[in-house]
Every structure is written in C-alpha cells, then in structure tokens.
Write a structure and sequence with these properties.
It is built from 13 helices and nine strands. It is α/β, with parallel strands linked by helices. Helix 7 links the parallel strand 2 and strand 3.
Length: 374
C-alpha cells in the first residue's frame, strides 16, 4: 500500500509539474524614494498592494485551460485556487486599510477604499501617467507581481497533493497571520552550517543588533556540529536565539515513511542540547507535510511553523541583493509575517544587513522569537 501511494504521488508530481515559474525579484532602485519614515513606508506599501491587486484581479478572468497554460501545469486544483484568491483579497484589504492611515502626511497612492469592491475598483483603474514621479517603478513592479502571483497560484493549484506554505491544514499550523501590522519574524532554515560558517556569522550579527530569530535546524547537521566542536560551543552559538527543528534531513516529510521519527529524533536532540533556546516548532522542508498529521503534531506538543515571505536565497535562484530586494518588496506588500532565509547560504549573511539598512527608519518591529506563535 505504501509503495502504491508513493508511486501515485510521484506520478501526480510528474504530470502536474512542468516548466518552473520564474522567481520574482524587483530592483528597489526603481522606487524613487527611500523608506525613510513610517509614512514613506506606507506610500510604497500602498503602491505594491495596488499593483499586486491589479494582477490578482486580472487573473480572475482566466478560465481553466488558460490557467493551466499560464502556470505550466496539466492538472490544477480550482477549489484551492479560489480559496487562495479569497484569502489574498482579505489580507490585501486589511493591509491597504493600515497603509492609508498616513494619507494625511503623504497622499500618494491614496484612494477611497472602504470595502473589497472599492479595492478591486481602484486596482482595476491603476495606471500611472508618463510624467508620474513613480513611472520608472510601474513596469518593473507589474512584472514582479505577475511572477510572484504565478508562484502563489502554482502552489495553490498543486495543493494538497503537493503541500506548501500557501495553505494551512489546521490551527496547529502558524504563519504569522496573527502578528500586528509592521511586525516581522526572522527565521533561518537548513542549519547549522560548518564551524565558523554562516550560522556563526548570523547569530553573532543578530546579537550585535540586539535582535533574535528562530533557527530551524536539521538533526543530522546539529549532531555533526556537536561532534566537530562541543555541546557548549553549540549552546554558545545559539545564545539569545530560538531553535526549532526541520527534521533529521532536509527532505520532504509528506511521503517519507520515517517522517515521524525524523521529527521526534531531531526535536529531542535540540531540546536536550539547548533547553533554554528550544521552541516546539517544526518547519517542514519545502513546506511539504502530510494533510493527516495534525494528531501527531498535537500529541508531540509541536506547532508547524510556516512562512509567508520567502527570500529565494537557495543556490540557483536569486543573488544576495536580489533576495534582499524581494524580501523588502514582500514586506511592503504583506506588512507583517514570517521571513525565511537559509543560514547555510552566503546570500543570507549579505542580504540581511541590506534589509535592515533599508528598513531602519521605516517604523517596523521585529517579533521576539520567544513570543512568536504562543
């Protein structure tokens, strides 16, 4: 039975997945203003919300064959797509409502939006004149949001056969939806890196900035790090930070026979090694986990920790500056949430300082990792 299910899942993946979607990034240099105050952050936020809403609205005119062609898929889940669109519109309206609170200070991209119909109407009418102060941003932003929307729609179209971060299976799964406006949580996946590597640099940098983050570790990498240094060195490495788990190996936990053992084994190691840093959270590699796993996670006292702002900093994707600019654009769009980097990658140690520099005067807050998802 297990072999049959695995073969069925693999067959679906082969049939469903065709050409990969281009990863979206936006050169923030096309935006003519620094995010030098909370009000200027709001101006840029309103602009990105309206531009994404414009793309989302246009996508609703596509029928099933057109969606399959656009997403490069042979099979799509229309119900999941519709559900994602509803969730996106709900969040976009809430975000624009927050972003327009500073319209008295700067009226750029301020329109009367009091309802979902208002937002849809304004998004449909969005157009910048050739002499607009923001005209250089318009076309690159539109291209970014078309690509980013494709990323989201493609994941929804494959859900739940291929699970991802775009939808939750239950209340045991968290993604920062409940955070306050302008509040973000930093997270890092796939570590720890080798002794003296990127994890060392990032944890030290965060401590110097008086910040913390949640590091989701792989059990095998953590055990290797202990063996090649010491338990006390690893405890010092994560001082002031939070440590969750990604399982024993960085592989999908949706069709892996030993997925439960992978999680419990790595969680036990992290908790015993660093009881003061450990948080009972599991970050599924690739966002993939089983639809029927809620009972297991609840029995283990674990929450599934998803994300909604991905840096795409893995090898073969974005460069460090592109990753930082993607994250910043998504921060403007979503205005709160969980940011994911990979602490085994050089891109993360380059992108994070860029991101903090660009947002230093924007009135943002960084969620204490010990308070997240409590």
């Amino acid at each position: 039975m297990r072999i049959a299910l695995l073969l069925s899942a693999c067959l679906f993946c082969l049939n469903a997945q065709a050409a990969p979607v281009d990863v979206a990034s936006l050169d923030r240099g096309t935006w003519p203003e620094k995010l030098g105050s909370p009000a200027l952050f709001d101006v840029a936020s309103r602009a990105e919300i309206l531009m994404f809403s414009r793309s989302l609205l246009a996508s609703e005119a596509l029928d099933e064959p057109a969606l399959k062609q656009r997403l490069g898929l042979k099979i799509i889940n229309l119900a999941a797509l519709d559900d994602l669109r509803r969730q996106l519109w709900k969040r976009l309206l809430a975000n624009y409502t927050f972003a327009q609170q500073s319209c008295e200070e700067d009226a750029s991209f301020c329109y009367l939006v009091e309802s979902m119909d208002d937002l849809r109407e304004q998004a449909g009418k969005l157009e910048l004149s050739e002499d607009s102060f923001y005209i250089g941003w318009a076309a690159p932003s539109h291209a970014f949001h078309e690509r980013y929307l494709n990323e989201l729609l493609r994941k929804a179209a494959l859900f739940p056969q291929i699970s991802s971060e775009v939808a939750r299976f239950g209340d045991h799964e968290r993604n920062g939806d409940e955070f306050n406006d302008r509040l973000f949580l930093l997270t890092f996946d796939g570590g720890p890196a080798a002794v003296g590597g990127n994890t060392d640099w990032l944890t030290d940098y965060l401590r110097k900035q008086k910040m913390n983050a949640t590091f989701f570790v792989l059990g095998s990498s953590l055990q290797t790090r202990v063996e090649r240094s010491s338990a006390s060195d690893v405890q010092a490495l994560y001082q002031g930070q939070c440590v969750g788990t990604q399982g024993w190996q960085y592989r999908s936990h949706s069709h892996w026979v030993d997925w439960q053992s992978s999680i419990t084994r790595s969680a036990t190691l992290a908790q015993n090694l660093m009881p003061e840093n450990y948080v009972p959270q599991f970050r599924p590699p690739y966002g993939q986990r089983r639809a029927d796993s809620q009972g297991f996670f609840q029995s283990q006292g674990l929450q599934v920790a998803l994300w909604d702002i991905d840096s795409q900093d893995e090898p073969g994707k974005l460069k460090a500056d592109e990753s930082a600019q993607r994250v910043l654009t998504l921060m403007l769009l979503w205005r709160k949430g969980v940011i994911v980097f990979h602490d085994t990658q050089d891109r993360a140690r380059l992108a994070l300082p860029m991101l903090l520099h660009e947002t230093a005067q924007s009135g943002l807050g960084w969620q204490d990792c010990r308070e997240a998802f409590r």
